[in-house]
Design brief:
The protein is built from 10 helices and 22 strands. It is α+β, with helices and mostly antiparallel strands. It has 3 domains: 67 residues, Uridine Diphospho-n-acetylenolpyruvylglucosamine Reductase, domain 2; 233 residues, Uridine Diphospho-n-acetylenolpyruvylglucosamine Reductase, domain 3; 78 residues, Uridine Diphospho-n-acetylenolpyruvylglucosamine Reductase, domain 1 (Alpha-Beta Complex). It starts with a strand and ends with a strand. 40% of the residues are buried. About 22% of the residues have low confidence.
Length: 437
């Protein structure tokens, strides 16, 4: 373990804003992480975890804390979930409070490597998220392809419950292995214990923690169907608003052979790979390429701008409030929240007891509305700029600056945007970005 002092955090985040950390350390193992936590306790400073720095706003002043960058690596494909990694079994050291870093207990020690079309994968928190997605796609595993191109690390994925184009990472997570700072040991939390919600989880609130994510277990599928329900993907691949691409009830008919009506950007006609059940649809690689191309047209170049990506969450409002707004703004889009096409059934089979909330708990009538549409069409804020901060012209839920802004400027700008939305619509919008102060 190597502790550094007075390290600038500015270049460790995509926002390119941040003061100096009093102490800084990278941890590539759970044991190094435990030693760093002990050091912070001795110095009487808090521990702040930094992943890829892509969804973070760091204060411009000094940070009196130990900033811990998690670099735990490794991807175990078709992992035996009930067994502890043998390389780590003999590497127990003293944890916080003198306790040993014991492997977390797990049910069903005889769990086989895979069940049918489901493939468990255990990934270190320090792995690149998009690198992991690329590997999964290359191996022909479905479930996270729509999350291509998202910056950051695997460890940040469950904290934020990252999502894009109709997919949320919670729908593929089996468990999250964390280091419990208070108890000084590793714990394994089930999907339900993580309390996932829209761009949210218990990790953002640390009700029982604080916890530091070390590894994440995913359940992917060898045999899946595309989730192409989002307008951008339908537009990219042609008009796919009817089966086989609509919701969980996609049915692939033998007579269906969908092709994108025009060439891609390089002038190469896309031909979809056939499905063994009959019919045709885009391959995993084609979906990944499409998502990356669409994202690149909406999000700023990190070499040119300081940004944390989507700064605000898309609001989730009651059906009643949506209907009232719809009367005032007839073109307002809305997406009723329901059970996502996911690995729910598979996760329930793998986990004991089932780890997902009851279906009754998911039937509450809520509607998600695109904040970008609200900012453009109701608030007239397209391209809005103040001082060094602006809403990105191509995607207004993204805040950007050219390199001169401070964290205080970002906060004031974000507050002004939120106030305008509140006055115009009655909706209180929330940050998606995490603060480090």
């Amino acid at each position: 373990m190597h502790i550094q002092e007075h390290i600038s955090l500015k270049e460790l985040t995509t926002m390119k804003i941040g003061g100096d950390a009093r102490y800084f350390c990278s941890a590539s193992t759970a044991e190094a992480l435990a030693e760093a936590v002990l050091f912070a306790r001795e110095k009487n400073v808090p521990v702040i975890v930094l992943g890829g720095g892509s969804n973070t706003l760091v204060a411009s002043g000094d940070i009196n804390a130990l900033v811990l960058k998690i670099e735990i690596k490794g991807v175990e494909w078709e992992s035996p979930l009930g067994k502890w990694n043998s390389r780590r079994r003999g590497a127990l050291r003293r944890g916080v409070g003198g306790g040993l870093l014991q492997p977390p207990a797990h049910r069903n020690a005889s769990t086989p490597f895979s069940k049918g079309d489901s493939v468990p994968v255990v990934v270190g928190a320090g792995e690149s998220w998009d690198g992991f997605v690329a590997q999964a796609v290359e191996k022909g595993l479905w479930g996270i392809e729509n999350l291509s191109g998202i910056p950051g690390t695997v460890g940040a994925a469950p904290i934020q419950n990252i999502g894009a184009y109709g997919t949320e990472v919670k729908d593929t997570i089996l468990w999250v292995e964390v280091f419990d700072i208070k108890a000084g040991k590793l714990r394994r939390l089930t999907n339900a214990e993580c309390r996932f919600a829209y761009r949210d989880s218990m990790f953002k609130h640390q009700v029982e923690g604080p916890f530091i994510v070390c590894r994440v277990a995913f359940l992917l599928r060898k045999d899946g169907v595309p989730n192409l329900e989002y307008k951008d993907l339908q537009k990219y691949f042609g008009n796919l608003s009817s089966p086989p691409f609509q919701g969980e009830k996609r049915i692939l008919g033998a007579s269906q052979d969908l092709e994108r009506p025009s060439s891609d950007a390089k002038g190469v006609q896309l031909r979809y790979e056939g499905d063994k059940r009959g019919g045709s649809f885009p391959s995993l690689q084609q979906i990944r390429n499409a998502v990356i191309e669409i994202r690149s047209g909406k999000f700023p170049d990190l070499r040119e701008f300081g940004t944390a990506g989507s700064f605000f969450k898309n609001p989730i409002i009651s059906k009643k409030q949506f209907d009232e707004l719809k009367e005032r703004y007839p073109n307002l889009p809305g997406f009723p929240l329901s059970l996502s096409p996911s690995l729910e059934g598979e996760i329930e089979r793998w986990c004991t007891p089932p780890t997902l909330p009851s279906k009754e708990g998911r039937r509450e009538e809520k509607v998600k509305i695109p904040l970008a549409w609200v900012l453009d069409n109701i608030c007239n804020l397209k391209g809005f700029k103040k001082g060094n901060v602006a809403l990105f012209e191509k995607q207004p839920i993204v805040l950007v600056h050219s390199g001169e802004a401070t964290s205080e400027e970002i906060e004031l700008f974000a507050k002004e945007i939120a106030d305008i939305v509140k006055v115009k619509t009655g909706i209180e919008i929330e940050w998606e970005v995490q603060r480090i102060f």
